[in-house]
């Protein structure tokens, strides 16, 4: 009978994956017994989870935003309420919520799923919400050569709801406004009306 595949055990220090070693050290520091049943597999699980949660470091916005030429659409293109999960770089706690991403095309557009992948590319890193919001807008301006970009992000931060000031219902809102959106109030109003559900703007 083949033995059940078990990843490296705590008693196997030589050549152990650095992330698993780190989790093992963490258990010791907080006073846990890493050999108890519930924790034996945890270092390997954390390593796999981190591969996913921090996948953004291995992704390039320029590769994600594959553009194609399209001269018909000059009006706002909007990805609305795209959910995301990120990690606060100050506490290593999660923060999550949704982001709306709009741009004004300049003869180049992208598939809408590419905008969602762009959000994940920057969210799956150590972040602060302000930078996450700005990086998405700047990547769109840079790679699409867009006439404008507007990114609006609302998120709940575990480091605020579960510790520290402990405000359960507070969320944080950040925005990044670039190009023609900066200059024209009517465009900002169009964006905000669309994001809050009133597409006609009336
Ligand atoms: Zn934090």
Describe the structure in your own words:
The chain has two domains: 18-53, GTP Cyclohydrolase I, Chain A, domain 1 (Orthogonal Bundle), CATH 1.10.286; 67-196, GTP cyclohydrolase I, C-terminal domain/NADPH-dependent 7-cyano-7-deazaguanine reductase, N-terminal domain (GTP Cyclohydrolase I, domain 2, 2-Layer Sandwich). The model is unreliable at 1-9 (pLDDT under 50). The N and C termini lie far apart (70 Å). The protein has helices spanning 18-30, 37-40, 42-53, 61-64, 112-123, 129-144, 158-161, 180-183, 185-195; strands at 67-69, 77-88, 94-104, 108-110, 126-127, 148-157, 172-179. With 202 residues, the protein is an alpha+beta fold. A hairpin with a 5-residue loop joins strand 2 and strand 3 (94-104). The strands form two sheets. A five-stranded mixed sheet has the order 5-2-3-6-7, sandwiched between helices. A two-stranded antiparallel ribbon has the order 1-4. 40% of the residues lie in helices and 24% in strands.
Gist?
With 202 residues, this protein is an alpha+beta fold.
Blueprint of the fold:
Layout: H1 18-30, H2 37-40, H3 42-53, H4 61-64, E1 67-69, E2 77-88, E3 94-104, E4 108-110, H5 112-123, E5 126-127, H6 129-144, E6 148-157, H7 158-161, E7 172-179, H8 180-183, H9 185-195
Parallel strand pairs: 2-5
Antiparallel strand pairs: 1-4, 2-3, 3-6, 6-7
The structure holds zinc ion (ZN).
Residues 88, 90-91, 93, 157, 159 line the site of zinc ion.
